[in-house]
Amino acid sequence: MLRYVFRRLLTAIPTLFVIVTISFFLIRVAPGGPFNQERGLNPFIKANLNRQFGLDEPLWMQYLNYLNNLLHGNFGPSYNLPDFTVTELFKVGLPVSIQVGISALILALIIGGILGIVAALRQNKAADYAVIATATAGSTIPTFVIAPIYQLTFATTLALVPVATWGNGALLNKIGPIVTLALPQIAIVARLMRGSMIEALRSHHIRTARALGLSDWSIIVKHALRGALLPIVSYAGPAAAALLTGSIIVETIFQIPGVGRYFVEAPLSRDYALVMGSVVVIALFTIVFNLIVDILYAVVDPRVRYD
Amino acid sequence: MKKSLRSLLLATALVTISYSAAFAEMIYNRGNSADPESLDPHKTSTVYEAHILRDLFSGLVMQDAKANLIPGAAESWKISDDGTVYTFTLRKGATWSNGDPVTADDFVYSFRRLEDPATAAEYASMLYVVKNAQEINEKKAKPEELGVKAIDAGTLEITLKAPTPYFLEMLTHQANYPVHKASIDKLGADWIKPGNLVSNGAYTLAEFVPNDHIKLIKNPKFYEADKVKIDVVNYFPTEDRSTAVKRFAAGELDSNDDMPLEQLADLKAKFGDQIHIGPYLGTYYYAVKTDKEPWSNPKLRRAISMAIDRDFLAEKVWNNSMLPGYSMVPPGIAGYEPAIADYAEMSQIDREDEAKKILTELGYGPDKPLKLEIRYNTSENHKNTAVAIQEQLKPLGIEVTMVNTDTKTHYGYLEQKGDFDYARAGWIADYKDPETFLGISRKASGNNYSNYNSPKFEELMDKAAAAGGNPAERSKILSQAEKVLVDDLGNMPLLYYSYHNLVSPKLKGFEDNVMDVHPTRFISKE
């Protein structure tokens, strides 16, 4: 097992290298540059800026410099927020995004999972329809609708929570972003869970278990659930990578300082260094979570072996 | 369960205690559309950081609550008879927030740093009127050759290239604020971090969490600290305007500098006179490719401009958050009369008739339709403006197409003199002088996207510069120059910007002004 993990981590290195290389050149294809703005800069000032950020060198040289810095763990300064290095920006933003993302994911897995199981056990009955209807609504109503409704109801009208901001991580400030982020995930998890649970309940080994006279609890939790979890695990991996790296919509509406915004804003403002930093972070999260999923497979499904 | 209940109670009690302790302090929660790009005065360019830097630093001269010029770090100044040498007497006893005295050498150092190419200051041009400044910035001279000299610790002498009546106004710009040499030498790039930053203004930097908040606290060493009422200012970047309005309504913000203008009617009904809207020194215009057929013909440009119903744009598209504009320089600069287009007084119907006449004269008609392409940068309102213009030009047989790109692509394209017909642009005053608006249409300006090149306009602009010693005369010549530009439609002004603030009635001293400048030191809260 350990050898497998080690091997997977080794193969991540060339993967990262390819991703970094492609993104480095792709963003340079976009027209304009970090210093184009409403009020144009005179050519000398722009040359000064380009020189300061090393953008006056030939592209291949910039690429080699970037790789060299990256190997030393240096992502460079942000072009548009020169007071901070890319590393500093992620140091502030990632903990926020991870906290919100993990909470939303756990919430989604627990609530979505329970709802899905309930629906599967009451298949084609009122409870099932209610879950499916809620799940469909949950996954179709976009976050930019849910978030303002949450703010209007709980903050403006009832005055139970603040409208927005992180408030140094106060619990009341976190509820909004977490719930908003979790709702669509709850819906998806519930539907996945329902489907795979129904399938598991119909399988031969469950029929055998029933014939043996095992209790309902033991059949559902010990035998059916274990098999039904596989699709959830494979969904949760990439979902975790996406949730933990933040969401620009939730972050802007709730004005919380996560990193989700950088993935959108950095390319739009041609902040090359921040774009690259974002790409590396997303890539790392995706690689790590895919690995975790594969390990979890072995835990959940005894047929899977990596040795 | 019990344990968590107890800790919850404890937390509540703590919050209550800290709340009542904080009650004695006057805290101003200020919404500011965007985070600053940088808090280093020499690396900033936007109005969002201008608000913050104005609280942190004090330049030689500053602006009061109504954006009028007042003494800052300098107590008084003398201008030589020829208008080229300014001698500033610095305020006695004024210090930095760490106790060091503010000296003439600090300004010499700061101004050299602004022009030094190694600093790569975006707004280095804010001092280009000073002798050798531009040469230094373009690496043709050494920073030591800058026309700024410390006569003694309390006296600073600045020599200009030519008389520049708006020089003092330029000095109010944040790029011309002083920075603390000792901390830059010691800390390098980290000098700007909270806890390190030494400033000489009414406030000091306590916290800066990007995309979250910036906390400034009162500087007890500020020269007028006894008059500063607000103890703590929290700047919140309020990118999402709807959220900002909700936070304002909930009392989380005392003011915000923007709002969803598409809902202005509803907001006015809800907030009444807490909404402050008024003329702001900014022009929304379209650049025209004046060196390309058929737009090289001023007559055709005039027909297009006349056919555009600016009242409709201002009222329907912008919900009266903009004003119809017929000149490049917006009204509101004391002592200057903007040159308004001659058709401003005509009714829209008459304008359209004349526009049609011109088009027929030039041979355009149903069998030879005129094709026009509008380029604009991504924004709902820029799009709506372009669409409205498309509709307004349609009855004249003009086929308008649109190209939308993101902001960086848009300005990158304009700067590289890409091929276009009409393109959206805007200009906000850096200082209160018509020159800032007219300069962008000069032949040599990097912002002359239209490639406008009129010898008459150039001549008048040069003449105005030469008349620097006589403000009234200079104003008159600038107005003549603007007349040439407006008649020629070297750029096509469409609208004037307005400021739009949400201001709580608890705030006192938040005075409306054309520069939309609101230093916290003049504000208090009930």
Description:
The complex is a heterodimer of chains A (307) and B (526). By secondary structure, chain A is mainly alpha-helical. In chain A, 75% of the residues lie in helices and 0% in strands. Chain A has twelve helices and no strands. Chain A has helices spanning 2-29, 43-52, 59-71, 86-121, 126-140, 143-157, 171-201, 204-211, 216-244, 248-253, 260-268, 272-300. In chain A, helix 8 (204-211) packs antiparallel against helix 9. The N and C termini of chain A lie close together (6 Å). The relative contact order of chain A is 0.14. In chain B, helix 9 (298-307) packs antiparallel against helix 11 (348-361) and helix 15 runs antiparallel to helix 16. Helices cover 32% and strands 21% of the residues of chain B. In chain B, strands 1, 8, 9, 10, 11, 12, 13, 14, 15, 16 and 17 form an eleven-stranded mixed sheet that branches. Chain B is an alpha+beta fold and 526 residues long. Chains A and B meet through helix 2, helix 4, helix 6 and helix 10 of A and helix 7, helix 13 and strand 16 of B.
